[in-house]
User: Fold this.
Amino acid sequence: MKRPNLRSRLVSAILFGLLTMSMQAELPPLIPLEDFFRNPAEVGHSLSPSGEYIACLKPWRSRLNLFVREVESGREKRVTSVETRDIASFDWVSDDFLAYTLDQGGDENFHVFLARRDGSETKDLTPFPETRAAILDPLPRDPRHFLIQHNRRDKRVFDAYRVDLKTGETQLVVENPGVITGYMADHEGRVRAAVSADGVQTSLLFRESEEEDFRTVLTTDFRDTLAPLAFTFDNQFLYCASNLGRDRQAIVVFDPRKAQETRVIYEHPQVDTGEILLSEKRKKLTGAAFLAAKRGYKFFDEERRRLQERLEAKLPGVEVVVVSANLNEDRFIVRTYSDKTRGAVYLYDAGKNRLACLAEISPWLNPEHMADVRPIVYQSRDGLLILGYLTLPKGVPPRRLPTVILPHGGPWARDAWGFDPVLQMLANRGYAVLQMNFRGSTGFGRKFWELSFKQWGLAMQNDVTDGVRWLIEQGVADPKRVGIFGGSYGGYVVLAGLTFTPDLYACGVDYVGVANLFTLMETIPPYWEPMRRMMYEMIGDPEKDAELFRRVSPVFHADRIKAPLLIVQGANDPRVKKAESDQMVEALRQRGVETPYLVKDNEGHGFHNEENRFEVYRALEQFFARRLGGRVGSGKDILGKLEKTAAPSAKR
Assistant:
């Protein structure tokens, strides 16, 4: 293994010193597990176009439902009465109507519903079997219409529709020719830009009006990014996130008629920039947001800068994000958070310079009992620097701690600084927790992303392994008490870690993880079909790369696993099918290995119903306590029940 350079060792020494000095003197109380994973008191607040009403999601019969509150009077009305599943998302589509999405049992075939603000009427706009729908654009400035998309006609692609709020009728706006993967409307609500993919090439499409056909403006290799973010306010050009000719994505103005960038607005020196801030009222681009170790901003507008400064002065010590505004932009919904709190939601009246708290998201969690989440950097064996986050339990010296490694899913996603109930629950139980943005994690430039291609179980896995060894070398992790827990691709990392580095981990928890790359590719959802060839480039081709697939698929090497393993799966998962977990469980049980296996028939890619979250994390808590020695709260013996079911003598 390549030895860390001086810079990496210096960074590690400084960070470790800071961590050591920051430890508290008293152990916090053992917090009930349910307090970490129960539904928030209320969340997702959004102002209506007029600013007279606020909508949010609140629990009703253990499910998140829509509620609407009058700003002036404070009177509140429950709009929906959903009992089977949390509402997934919602938007104001006028002052009188809200649209929301809901699936069944985790199948991710979301329907779009239209509801009156007063709760008097709800209509399913997409009551079609085996169809996935989404809100495309709420068109807040159009009091009569909004845009949706769904794949009823062809399960592989999505058509765009305009909904008439008065009648509830839908009108076809774009019939997908078979390659479009995304649409964008201009500031007048006309769908005039789109993105297409044929597998290994992506194209930007454009048209002058909805009466014309789309024409291809620019076609690039999928490794190049030209992602439209919004139309300029004259509806002539596009604000885009682009890495054309550069490693990191920058915010640019793109001319669709000349097929070229006309101006680079902002480029961060270390990370991608892909989020813009707009003032629809003043018709201005006001800023850009980026995610380095923490969230940051670049402002182009003094009024928007002053708004941020006023809010941060009123709300010190937490991150402050403006999440919603009315059309007049004199009322704002403001959300706060930190690593130790989910934070609160506020209504800010700009004219009166008045800030009022609407709700604490999880008021039952005391920030003083939560652990610090600190950014760290370590070096992988080939010299690549990896940004991660280390969470240490309060009140415990940071030496030879039981440790949980927590790789993120995706894999083309990233971990970020903020409040995470899993981190805080594990830290409260006495574990150090290490997260890492291994190669392929998004936001760190094209080169960093491309280093992950066809590296499942190889260099990507090495980045995780080297993070574990780094933490052991720092003296933080007890080498005999390191567990690993991850979901989706993170679940694959768990299985690969226990398979390919069997002496590194004392135990693992695989949550809807991939076990077999062959079957993963065979069972992708139909609406991923346009990206199949791209997935072959990034993960591998099951025919051309069959040897690679067999080499890195944990199911074919289950005989190497030494450490205890808990597997969790949703029966309706459309992305990582239940067969992935079934294969792994069967491979282990054929060896006579007891493998606790938790399956929920009403869940999909992750457990979303509150009672199911309680069960899976109770099982995880008990599993880690037994194998790693952390604290455990009171509650049903979920793990014991699973182990009895898993025993080789049990009927299967």
User: Anything to note?
Assistant: Residues 6-34+366-573 form a domain with the Rossmann fold fold (CATH 3.40.50.1820). The first strand starts at residue 43 and ends at 47. Residues 6-25 have pLDDT under 50 and may be disordered. Residues 7 and 297 are 27 Å apart (CA to CA).
